[in-house]
Design goal:
The structure is a single chain. It contains ten helices and 22 strands. The protein is of the alpha/beta class and about 425 residues long. The strands form four sheets. Strands 6-21-22-20-19-16-17-18 form an eight-stranded mixed sheet, sandwiched between helices. A seven-stranded mixed sheet has the order 9-8-7-10-11-12-13. The chain has a five-stranded antiparallel sheet with strand order 3-2-1-4-5, with no helix packed on it. The longest helix is centred in the N-terminal third of the chain and has 18 residues. The radius of gyration is 23 Å and the shape is flat. Bound molecules: S-adenosylmethionine. The site of S-adenosylmethionine (SAM) has 18 residues, from loops. The site of S-adenosylmethionine has 18 residues, from loops.
Length: about 425
């Protein structure tokens, strides 16, 4: 490659996936605003990138796997830069809706705190290999020194490999979702061989040998040494295999602290998109809670956790699709027993239908937890137009070194 075939570009901003963007637009992964870079333009992408003039925010990536692994996108940027960039993503999404607010200092989860990961695990001639997919490729990168995962997850890599030796087909890698719990590892395997008698016996022995708390093969339970419960306040919940959990314990604690602060003093709270009770159960220490969730098994897990707990106020549960069938104002404000606060934590699509009904119901305080600044800003506009003020936003970064941004926000009804 001659230098003549190379293009030089100045990075002006970062795109949604954290890639640097120059005029064109020309996307240059792992570059930063202000950097002068050179590379080979292939369509709208710059490849074979060389950073000619580095940004003052460029740092040495802490993880030795960063060059090849696709698990992280932002290790080449300083923590301060990433914090400001993530807050900026939320600020820009709000500004596109004509909104602004105060930002609390970001909460960033520490390194090595991710409590759940899905590893790709492939059989090899010598045995098996586990890791994350490489950058924009199907190649699996091994990650023995990963800086994201909890040590217990890293220690589970040989167990995931043993599962592949026992039950991966030659054609496709297993997808092994591993969640840590105080009782041990909760492992869910997908893309494996069909479960027959001998494989079932082998997997059960493997689970016992490696003290796996629970092993699930596709949708079938294979072994349950101990329920892999998660503590939510004083309650313990055994989530369905692979069910949603906040990504880190620290991130969960930061979101919960914000939600508790926002709903403080409320005696009746509705928790919408409640999951397995991450917020409902701790909130039930001081309030009656109605938890609504669209996955039936999660509703059952939440209810079972509440029934076994001691000292909590009443938690009622409802299995309901809140996109198609949002809670209506008359349900949010039943005669004489209106909810005094609402918690809403929807998936990435946001909560368009439910937010309209909440706005009509005029619930005085709303704690909105979001994993997508764009759908959050769209929903925020509906609330603000209905007479709410957006008091503050707290960005919570539990997907450290990724381009992903999460937040908690307080809305209060004016007058
Ligand atoms: C971001 S998670 C939050 C869960 C919970 N608040 C937590 O912190 O663990 C979003 C939840 O919304 C649920 N969900 C997704 N689509 C839904 C729908 N249409 N109606 C009701 N719940 C839905 C998911 O099952 C998931 O539990």
């Amino acid at each position: 490659m001659t230098d003549a075939a190379r293009t030089t570009a100045t990075i002006s901003r970062l795109g949604h996936h954290g890639d640097g963007v120059a005029d064109g637009p020309l996307f240059a992964p792992r570059t930063l605003p202000g950097e002068i870079v050179s590379g080979v333009a292939e369509g709208s992408h710059l490849t074979q990138i060389r950073v000619e003039t580095p940004s003052e925010h460029r740092v040495q990536p802490p993880c030795r796997h960063y060059r090849s692994c696709g698990g992280c996108q932002m290790q080449h940027a300083s923590d301060a830069f990433v914090a400001e960039w993530k807050a900026g993503v939320v600020r820009n999404a709000l500004s596109a809706q004509g909104l602004e607010t105060d930002f609390r200092p970001i909460h960033t989860s520490p390194a090595r705190s991710r409590r759940r990961a899905t590893l790709a695990v492939r059989r090899t001639k010598k045995g098996a290999m586990a890791g994350f997919h490489g950058r924009a490729s199907d190649v699996i990168t091994e990650i023995p020194d990963c800086h994201l995962l909890e040590p217990a997850l890293l220690a589970a890599i040989p167990v995931a490999e043993a599962l592949a030796v026992a039950g991966a087909s030659r054609k496709a890698p297993l997808a092994v979702t591993i969640t840590t719990s105080d009782a041990g590892l909760d492992m869910l395997v997908r893309n494996g061989k069909p479960l027959d008698g001998p494989l079932r016996i082998e997997l059960a022995q493997l689970a016992e040998r490696h003290r796996i708390a629970r092993l699930t093969w596709e949708d079938e339970p294979v072994a349950m040494e101990q329920p892999p419960e998660q503590p939510f306040g004083p309650a313990n919940v055994c989530p369905p295999p692979g069910a949603f959990l906040q990504a880190t314990r620290e991130g969960e604690a930061a979101l919960l602290a914000a939600v508790q602060e926002i709903t403080k003093g409320a005696r009746r709270i509705v928790d919408l998109f409640a999951g397995c009770g991450t917020f409902s159960l701790p909130l039930a220490q001081t309030a009656e809670v109605h938890a609504v969730e669209g996955e039936r098994d999660m509703v059952k897990a939440l209810d079972a956790g509440w029934r076994k707990s001691k000292g909590l106020r009443r938690v009622s549960t409802e299995y309901r699709d809140l996109f198609r069938n949002p809670l209506l104002p008359e349900e949010i404000n039943p005669f004489g027993a209106a909810f005094e606060a609402a918690v809403i934590d929807p998936p990435r699509a946001g909560a368009e239908a439910q937010i309209k009904q909440l706005a009509k119901a005029r619930t005085p305080v709303i704690a909105y937890v979001s994993c997508n600044p764009v759908s959050f800003a769209r929903d925020a506009k509906v609330l603000v137009e209905a007479g709410y003020s957006l008091d503050w936003v707290q960005v919570v970064d539990q997907f450290r070194w990724s381009a992903h941004t999460e937040l908690a926000a307080r809305f209060t009804l004016k007058d």
